[in-house]
Amino acid sequence: MNVPKAQNRFDIRQYFVRGESLVATTGMAFIAILAFAVGGVVWISARTIDDSIVSQSEDQIRQISELIASQAELRLSDGDLPGLRRLFHDAAASGMVEECEVSVPDLGVIASSNTTQSFVNKLPDSWQPAPNVVASITHNDQTQRTVVLEPLLVGGQSGMTLKLVVNKSVQVIGSDSIRASSVGIVSVGLILMLWVYRRFRNRLGALAAIGESLKAASAGERRTPCLVVGENLGPEASIWNQLLAEREELEQMSVEQEIVEAAASGGSQSIGLPAACNTLTQGVVLVESDLQVIYANGAACVFLRVSSDELIDSSFEQVPESDLMIETIKSVLENDGSSRQIIELGEVKNIENQGAVLRVAITRVDDEDVPRALIFIEDVTQQRLADDSQNAFIAQATHELRTPLTTIRLYAEEAIDSGSEDEELREKALNVINSETRRLERIVGDMLCVAEIEAGSLSIHRDTLRTEQLFSELEEDYRAQAKDKSIELVFDLPPKFPTIQADRDRLAQALHNLVGNALKYTPSGGRVEVRINFSENHALKFEVIDNGIGIDESQHERIFDRFCRADDRRIAKVTGSGLGLALARQIARLHGGDVMVESDIDKGSVFTLTIPGIQEMTKAA
Amino acid sequence: MRIETNRHGAVTVIQPSGPVITEEDATQLRTESFEVLGNTLGRFIMDVTEMTFVDSFGLEALVDITDELSAGGQSLKLCGISDTLREIMAITDITSKFQQFEDVQTAVRSFL
Predict the structure, then answer these.
(1) Domain B2-109: which topology?
(2) Which of A51, A449, A485, A489 is the most exposed place for a label (fewest CB within 10 A)?
């Protein structure tokens, strides 16, 4: 049997209530800080007391030495050596000093508190002065003794020295007792604090656990089981858990209330559904059998040109131009079971006048035997326009293809019939077939090119192109057509033909379209001039100038749209796919250039194709 | 600022030229866009190729237009966005409010 690994894994956290570790850490840190503070205070206090006692002791020793020195000077001035020895003896006996003695440089010690020593009985009249002796107090920490040296002035003569030895340990009241008592007090304090901490630990743990729970809630946690704290943490924890339980209960009640309200309103107010429907680009409307609108999303209001407030809870009949929709809704609602009808409103030709083509799908939805109609509205104007353009294109393309094919078939039959008898007729037929075949090739090329543009895959392949050959072929291709139509075709070629970087087939396609259009829309007897210029940078400027029917200024941009031809009655009988200029511009733009037009009605047109040179292309890049 | 309006099939293309840096520019852009929006049921795109710069007024106008479109479940379709405008939109964190297209043809095709 497979046992999940998680069940066997040891997790120390299971032994802790939420917040226990925090409480322990906080408590220990608090104790450490307090102990450090108390210890510091005690140490500083003891040190201060020590310093104070030492200072007092030194003052005492100084006063004693001054007193004994003054008394010794008096007795020495009187020559009372026995009195001096008695004084020293009494001082040592009283415990003021441990030893005291007076010494003279020549005679040594003449009086001392030590009565076992023997001294001179009479003070000499003069003795060797000792000017280097200065008053001093010296402490010896090891022996706990303080030695005081005091120079004496007897009868105006210096040289005598009083030496006192004081037991410091006697004088200094030890600070160890202070330290010991302080440690005792601190220990008792710590024990008391530990007792208080242990007593209130649970309640502190509850506060810490509630704090962590609040932090989790602020981070987004909403699940009640994740926010509760241990009940054993005290009354605060119980109150917190009770609050959480009440919150969960209120939330459940709120959700239940929403569900009840949604159910009562037929589901139109169900949670989040209106907001979701408002993001749809298609209109959604729900109507009752009496045409009362229950729900409509934002797109529906836009399509029906009414505001949400006007539409919802009102009759659908107030929607402008809704007769057909109302008729269809009624028809759908009258049918038993689920039925669906689709209608289209508006026409493509009306789009210039704020019109649109709307596809409306109406479906019957029964909710507990209450019939309702769900209306789904889509704006299909652009699709219908594209369909119409495609249909027009297919019709025109069919016509364009049929014309050269018919010519080819007729001349082929004529060539076959004539056999080898009429060489001239056969040659003419073959020339016409050749010309029409190339025309057919161009039409098919244009159609393929359009397909590539539609797919977004039209691309060019630049190569070094010898322009002289390109233009000579172009002139040759259209020379016969111009002659047939009695149009003067002039090629104004430059003296030198540089090579350019371009896609030969695509560029030839664009130039053919421009020259072909000029010949097509220039009446007989007219003139078409092709001017070719190259800059020093090998940029190409190709101008086709005709004195044909011209184009109205309002149509100048439109004629470059795919499948579009200028709105002009004069060209109604002229066949054309409406692709040539769109392709020419697209090809020029893929080369980094453009095709522009300047034209006036009845005065002719100038189409200019430009291809930038290498340097310009580099700059543009 | 100059605003040109062209039609590509059933789709209207609004092409503002020049910087949109004053309240008057923003009001003009907003007004003309709202007018087109009402007439075309939202079938319009904005070609910002010639819009050299926008400040807070211009950004506010663009956001207002896309908010108006969002009432019908749509959002403003922008094409020809320059690097500068793209950076400004990214800094102000409003890029997601718009649909972006490389060129007008691609944007028009999105209505099919």
Answers:
(1) Transcription Regulator spoIIAA (3.30.750)
(2) A51
